[in-house]
Predict the 3D structure of the following.
Amino acid sequence: MSQQYYEKDDLQDFPNIAEYASEQGEKFFEYYDRATSAGKLTEREKSLIALTVATVRHCPYCIDAYTNKCLSLGVGHDEMMEAIHVGAAMVAGDTLVHATQMRKIVKKKEM
Amino acid sequence: MSQQYYEKDDLQDFPNIAEYASEQGEKFFEYYDRATSAGKLTEREKSLIALTVATVRHCPYCIDAYTNKCLSLGVGHDEMMEAIHVGAAMVAGDTLVHATQMRKIVKKKEM
Amino acid sequence: MDLRQQHELLYRMDKTDSFMDRLKGSAAYPLRAQSIEILQLNVTRRCNLCCRHCHVEGSPEQTGELSRENMEACLRVAAIPEITTLDITGGAPEMHPRLEWFLKEAAGIGKRLLVRSNGAILLEDPYRRYLDIYAETGVEVVLSLPHPLRERTDRMRGTGIFERIITAMKELNKRGYGNSETGRILNLVHNPVGAFLPGSQQALESEYRSRLRQDYGVEFNSLYCLTNCPVGRYLDFLKRSGNLPDYINLLKQSFNPEAVQNLMCRTTLSVGVDGRLFDCDFNQVLDLSLSDGTPAHIRDFNYEKLSRREIVVRSHCFACTAGSGSSCQGALE
Amino acid sequence: MDLRQQHELLYRMDKTDSFMDRLKGSAAYPLRAQSIEILQLNVTRRCNLCCRHCHVEGSPEQTGELSRENMEACLRVAAIPEITTLDITGGAPEMHPRLEWFLKEAAGIGKRLLVRSNGAILLEDPYRRYLDIYAETGVEVVLSLPHPLRERTDRMRGTGIFERIITAMKELNKRGYGNSETGRILNLVHNPVGAFLPGSQQALESEYRSRLRQDYGVEFNSLYCLTNCPVGRYLDFLKRSGNLPDYINLLKQSFNPEAVQNLMCRTTLSVGVDGRLFDCDFNQVLDLSLSDGTPAHIRDFNYEKLSRREIVVRSHCFACTAGSGSSCQGALE
């Protein structure tokens, strides 16, 4: 076993995650495939959304998988980066919008 | 002050979050506006990404703002829901892909 | 909802922070007309449809229409050089018994001439002939299509209406409408189907264009985005659905001082079914007469006095100054 | 990279889990041809370009071309009823001095006839005339366009090449190519610009179509998605960039047993520049002769023997069985 928690080979293990709880695992894969394949939104749109969620959630496996998927779908570098900026701006924004709660408490408590 | 942490009026306070740290606040708004407005990706695409990140991050303010934005842009209910399913499947997936780390430890440690 | 109820409701929503107060804080106070370029005629409130957002509460039950005498007065006014555009609205203008005659007379004046149609009526006898009359007179057709998705439009306008509008668009396309090379202009109007503001006109136009082209093969020239004004049936929806306070707040929060400069009432005069004059279609519905000392009827038209009149404002005016602004010609910017 | 190095590298990457072992575990073992429907001719490896992914390492320096005698043999073979398609590739086929003559002869046989062009050459003298020759003979044109974005395609094929391909497409569009109503077919080929697999053909086709239509106003019929095979210059790129082990693993992990049934080698015969026969273009590059006992040269063509031959496989074959599969006609499914 390596000294790294995150090994590149882990991603190849993704198809095996049904192990130890196969019924749930298989249902998960059915759901995952259905949710991420083209529907009203295209594969391209869903891959950009998935890439953004992957970065927001700091999942190196998913970033790897969806960067490759975006490349495979011919998505531009600029499009991928713009999607990640939406994620980054939202994370900054959802943090800052919670400053409202701090400010409400400050304003109530202080003399 | 209400007995609720999350009040609908909080969202209206968003433009005021520069208070107490105005320089950073203004720079944030400049960034936020640039990151979420149309570029290589359209406003529609960015709004769907933002709505997904908002749900993944459980930010009720952002969910409100971007649900309205999607409605304003004529995005279909089915498109909004499909985007959120991508988010949900990714959250489930990025959790389960980390089961690999648990399984690696189990397999190393057990006799 | 009757007129008194509408006024009461709006007043209750806006006792503290009136539109007038905002104006006073801006460079545009007092708000005056700067010209009259557009003469907008509401020729009848009768309509074959009964849409949930209709601010004039058009329906088959409505009565009354612009008289021949008043129409002739309108034609005389439209002929003066300052007026560039004759904008015919309703109700369904096609249900006015003298519309054909009026269009042909108006076309002779050589001004920009547009008719706001609900589209669906163009498939019904005896109104079907207007497809050809429009093409012959070269009138600009403005169709209301609240949403590019069937389900949303039908929700607002009635089941099956979306399909009929699409069919009407196909008929108009066949006659050269919606093709940038023929000069026959077919514009669409978007209204939010619910208690929210329209998105950017550019983004919506591209959304409409790609969906309508891909799903139905129909074409149009431009999309006008209109903010729903809290009057008439839309006010009723806001109240019943519990959205009214939030919507009024939203309009106020979205107040854009720059939109005030470009308010369409500053260059438009609205003629009611009875020939009376108003600052806009909404004031007409709310029966808010022109400010004191200005001619009150089309037969008393006086450019000098009317083109500098002070505009009568109330809290519903926030609808036209929200975000990028809204007018009968779409977003202001 | 010379031939010996390519074989060594592939062997080193695939000592334990060979393609043959996978086949043995599937219903397709032993892998045999089931017919010969497509006769693919590599008429020359000479090319005006020098693309980074070229598996035949085409370039202006390459020499040799299919002789007139061998071309005539190909025409005789193409005439037999079992063969439906004559697929002409290179190099740049246009650089073969007798291509015009060959196309006209081949068109006379009445089979599906297609030429794989790099597009850029169609703007250069003396090859420009092929624009008209193609249109006259009705040949199907297959252009390689690795990516719908300029920067990515130029990265693979050379600066300015994207623009030239677009210009060539415009010229072909003018001649009726890419219009579903004329019967003149212009297909594009996508190869991943890097060490990854192509996405779904449907998604990529719609991406290409909308970008090319919107940004450049050019049209095409279908997009073929090809998985890059780890031979020739592409193998070289994989090695130098440190992607080789990962890429081979990716191909193996993506092994799709269903794709085996539809492998294009089962219905294709590939003719080399010297007239020798191969199971496919990749085996030709790797100089992997047909299996024992089958005629080795086009002049010795024998349908009975060749159409049931056992296919010669090595680890590079994983490229054609990855994901939804890949062939010179695009994805298999």
About this structure: The mean pLDDT of chain D is 93. The CA atoms of residues 40 and 122 of chain D lie 21 Å apart.
